[in-house]
Amino acid sequence: MKLEHIQIQTNDIQKTSAFYKDILDLPIIENNSKSVSIQAGNSILKFVDNPQFQSIYHFAFNIPENKLDEAIDWCKNKVDLIFIEDEKLITNFESWKANAVYFYDNNGNLLEFIARHDLNNAQTTAFSSKSILNISEIGIVNENPLELGNLLKTKHGLEFFSKNANSELFSAVGDDEGLLIIVQPNRNWYPTQTPSESNPTEVKIENKGSEIELKF
């Protein structure tokens, strides 16, 4: 499953555009007073202006499975990476066969670089913004994560992530290429103490040759 296009909100289009262009060095493909669209590997991340918006999102980018250490070095002069317990930066998701690091964008959104070791995507070139492969996760907040997952399965032919212990509290739909991370409201976004909130989110997915558009 591929997350081709994600649309979320920001209360400051100019600062958001500057962060992704100047800090993360990602190409801006469309920019005006109402929205900015950013090319993130094979995905497009679109922010829509909403001056009243005061919440945050969580999303992740897939990077080459052998490049997490280089990604950390690349980030150090750009963003403040979030420490996990014992002053560690890297989270090991053993059952997912993945490692990740976290940081914030200018909006306070929780961003993640994740290296998934079951993907055959190792690279030999030095890590740069061009190493960002795609949007790999978007957080969706819903009162009934398992119920929503089953609805997406029935209506759109999507599947629960086989590596995740899906439950009524936390479910994941998709695969290593792209995941909808579905959590209940007020569940803290790992590894922070920031509670999740349901925010307007639009997602365009490619799954088994079919295009699917979802609004949450």
TrEMBL record:
<dbReference type="Pfam" id="PF00903">
    <property type="entry name" value="Glyoxalase"/>
</dbReference>
<dbReference type="InterPro" id="IPR029068">
    <property type="entry name" value="Glyas_Bleomycin-R_OHBP_Dase"/>
</dbReference>
<protein>
    <submittedName>
        <fullName>VOC family protein</fullName>
    </submittedName>
</protein>
<dbReference type="InterPro" id="IPR037523">
    <property type="entry name" value="VOC_core"/>
</dbReference>
<dbReference type="InterPro" id="IPR004360">
    <property type="entry name" value="Glyas_Fos-R_dOase_dom"/>
</dbReference>
<feature type="domain" description="VOC">
    <location>
        <begin position="2"/>
        <end position="116"/>
    </location>
</feature>
